[in-house]
Amino acid sequence: MPQYKAIIFDRDGTLNATSRGKGGYVLKADEMTLLPFVKESLQKLKSQGLGLYIFTQQRCIGKGLLTEEGLKDIHNKLNQLLGEEAAIDAFYHCPHLVDEGCACSKPKPGMLFDILRDFDLKKEEVLVVGDSLRDFYAAENAGMDFAFVPNDLGKHTDQEYAATGAPYFQNLHDLVAKVF
Ligand SMILES: [Mg+2]
Fold it and tell me: For a surface tag, which of 2, 17, 33, 164 has the fewest beta carbons within 10 Å of its beta carbon?
């Protein structure tokens, strides 16, 4: 395995549960719930000196269901739940609707490239982790390594995951134990 310096996580369904919010969206800070093993796994990664970033699609902002301020509150809550030793270093989000023609909407690689630029990382130094095919394709479009953890809503089948050829882990604990 390459020597990674950073991990870029999808947020919903990868680090936190999606099923409690409206339409799968987390719209309030008190709807933020960590998935099992997330806190301990991020602690371990951070203790090894890895940068921890999030790239998240938040179309609920474009739809008018959430404000930018509201999203900040939700991310503050996420870091509060994680604690200092597992905190996310920076959050990147795409608020746009599908037809707005932005460069950041997954599976476009815009957010991933922004993180590389802002933190002076090379694409080989980063592992992207997510639960959705669009996360995988964003990483592929950026030329970055990718690993799956399963979707908490059961959105994809095992066959769909397998067809990508990307490694698949039962949960974040399993991934960290085997890759780091
Ligand atoms: Mg997701």
Answer: 2
Which residue ranges make up each domain of the chain? 6-169
Determine the residue type at 134. Answer: R
User: How many Å lie between the centroid of ligand 1 and the Cα of residue 9?
Assistant: 9
pLDDT tens profile 82-120:
999 999 999 999 999 987 889 999 999 999 999 999 999
To the query of whether residue 89 is one of the catalytic residues in this protein, the response is: no
Choose among 96, 142, 93: nearest CA to 122.
142
- Cα(132) to ligand 1 centroid in Å equals 5
In CATH, what is the architecture of 6-169?
Answer: 3-Layer(aba) Sandwich (3.40)
114 in catalytic set: no
Type of residue numbered 73: D
